[in-house]
Amino acid sequence: MVSFLINVILGMQIMNYMVIVPEIILNTFKEYPYLHSPTIEEKKDYIGWFARHKKSMLVVSTKDEKIAGFITGIPMKALRDYIPSIEDLCTKNSIKIKDCYYCGDVIVLPDFQKQGVCSALFSAFENKVASMGYKCISLITSVREADHPLKPKNYRDPEAIWEHYGFRKTSLVITNMQPTVIDAAGTVKDIENSFIFWVKEIQST
Predict the structure, then answer these.
(1) Which of 19, 4, 2 is nearest to 113 (CA)?
(2) Cβ(56)–Cβ(198) below 8 Å
(3) Around Cβ 109, how many Cβ atoms within 10 Å?
(4) What domains can you pick out in the chain, each with its CATH number?
(5) Closest CA to 2 of 134, 131, 112
(6) For residue 63, what are the β-bridge partners?
(7) CA separation, residue 61 to residues 31, 57, 69 (Å)
(8) Strands 136-142, 100-108: parallel, antiparallel or unpaired by DSSP?
(9) Distance CA 182, CA 146 (A)
(10) Beta partners for residue 154, in sequence order
(11) N or C: which terminal CB in the chain sees fewer CB atoms within 10 Å?
């Protein structure tokens, strides 16, 4: 039996995954609840920006040299490049932005789900974040209508997953991070999006 391998990649070394990671993100984000339709160029630009930060992180799980899943992360304060209001929003919600590390993409490919990949990725991610001296991890979840026509019948609400990993939902809501959205007819439109902010306190090492 071949076990899953976990690698933690930092900074510019992330560029070694420039081909495959943006494609996986692109395909995942087209699904409910994201329904986001960026171009591959936009995603590559984002990963390029992301990799240039020396404390950015990509935690990758592989099996038989195939990517099973990954988590991306970057210091929360770096998000000011994309969300200028993020520091004010954090302050209003008693979150110290300098102490918080942002967990961006959490993706486990369908063929490798329910095999412990997500738990292994989170463990490696959290341990590395703690070793860098951060005191909390943040993430966001998309807000979509419960009766949205593109919602799969077997859809599992991720809130239970984040609660399982020790995250708590805050009252912080971020809008318009992903302006292009696929509607029920499959048309891409510019629609305001809302995202709920979650936080997990951790012990730095």
Answers:
(1) 4
(2) no
(3) 16
(4) 5-201 (3.40.630.30)
(5) 112
(6) 66
(7) 22, 13, 5
(8) parallel
(9) 16
(10) none
(11) N
* Cα-to-chain-centroid distance, residue 72: 6
Burial 161-173 (b: 16+ CB within 10 A, else e): ebeebebeebebe
136/102 Cα distance (integer angstroms): 9
Q: Which two tokens stand for residue 144?
A: 């979509």
d(Cα 125, Cα 115) in Å, to the nearest integer?
Answer: 18
CB-CB contact of 41 with 34 (8 Å): no
The C-alpha angle with vertex 158 and arms to 37 and 154, in degrees rounded to 5, equals 80
171 token code pair: 């009252």
Distance CA 46, CA 181 (A): 18
Give the integer Cα–Cα distance in Å for 59 and 10.
9
Tokens describing residue 114: 């329910």
Distance CA 94, CA 114 (A): 35
Task: Summarize pLDDT for 83-134 with one digit per residue, the tens.
Answer: 888 888 888 878 899 999 999 999 999 999 989 999 999 999 999 999 999 9
